[in-house]
Amino acid sequence: MTISSRFAVAVHILTLLETGRGEPLTSEYMAGSVNTNPAVIRRLLSLLARAGLTRARMGAGGGTVLARPAAEITLRDVYRAVECEGPLFSLHHERPNPKCPVGRNIQAVLERATGAAQAALEEQLRGRTVADVMAEVAAEGRVAPAMPR
Amino acid sequence: MTISSRFAVAVHILTLLETGRGEPLTSEYMAGSVNTNPAVIRRLLSLLARAGLTRARMGAGGGTVLARPAAEITLRDVYRAVECEGPLFSLHHERPNPKCPVGRNIQAVLERATGAAQAALEEQLRGRTVADVMAEVAAEGRVAPAMPR
DNA sequence: CATAGTGTTACTATTATGGTAACACATTCG
DNA sequence: CGAATGTGTTACCATAATAGTAACACTATG
């Protein structure tokens, strides 16, 4: 099983908001770039806003803006906002047999091992910001002002 | 979504095999320690054998043994054997809009970012072996010879 | 030949994901 | 004030993955 596409789409959204330079973008507009339904975008925006990464303005002329500078939003922030905040690895679904010494102790050991692996992953995500992504997108191709609205 | 419990159970299995010290253990026995159905164990053993981590002996008196010394089986080997060998992160399900510069370039950027994160996770797993797990299980509690058979 | 054990498929229940529809609520503008 | 615009959230649905159980062909031993 893989980490869902929510992370990828959320990074996409935040990068779009950075190209908007403070001007509110609608979920309709962002859905066009992401090639999905606006309700999907809204669901994610709800999580991003809850995590303090975006701010929405309701009503006519509304939309969403970044709540923080792009250079202050790490990909770890995004991951934590849209994916589970808990363990990445599932351990045994049924409690292993405590009568067996391996069964009795294996989960504690696994928790440490998998926790370290997850921490390494998050640490790597922490080293990249939405501003970095923006710069890389620009380097991949010329970032014109935006898609025609 | 999380990484399935297959990884945890596979590590459990390999650790058990290490306590067997070369003597074949049956899936029935291991299922007892893991507290699951033997068919689940067999499914995982099939993957582990395919990855060259275990060797099975069929027929009466059969069972499974480690195909390599525990100190030469890393948790990354296990992860690769039982979970997907491909990307850990899913990207967009539909191709983003190529008319938008962000849409056009975001996936390449995301591939690099998520690939680096996954590599960090695997690198961490690579630093731990089944022998290490065995030692930690022993440190958590006294490893008696084994569960009564 | 009977027994023990592997390897694999099929079935099932459950859960998570992601797309779409619907609509209450909030805000702006004429 | 009403219409229009846009958010936030829930519900529904189809699909995919997981993990437990059942079943059974195949393999090897005594």
Order of helices and strands of chain A: HHHEEHHH
Widest sheet, order of strands of chain A: 1-2
Summarize the biggest pleated sheet of chain A. 2 strands, antiparallel
Major interchain interface with per-chain residue totals: A-B, 68 and 69 residues
What can you tell me about this protein's structure?
Two copies of one chain form a homodimer. The first copy, chain A, is mainly α. Chain A has a domain of 93 residues: Winged helix-like DNA-binding domain superfamily/Winged helix DNA-binding domain (Arc Repressor Mutant, subunit A, Orthogonal Bundle). Helix content of chain A is 54%, strand content 5%. Chain A contains six helices and two strands; from the N terminus they run αααββααα. A two-stranded antiparallel sheet of chain A has the order 1-2. In chain A, helix 1 crosses helix 3, helix 1 crosses helix 6 and helix 4 packs across helix 5. The mean pLDDT of chain A is 92. Chains A and B meet through helix 1, helix 2, helix 5 and helix 6 of A and helix 1, helix 2, helix 5 and helix 6 of B. The structure holds a DNA duplex (30 and 30 nucleotides).
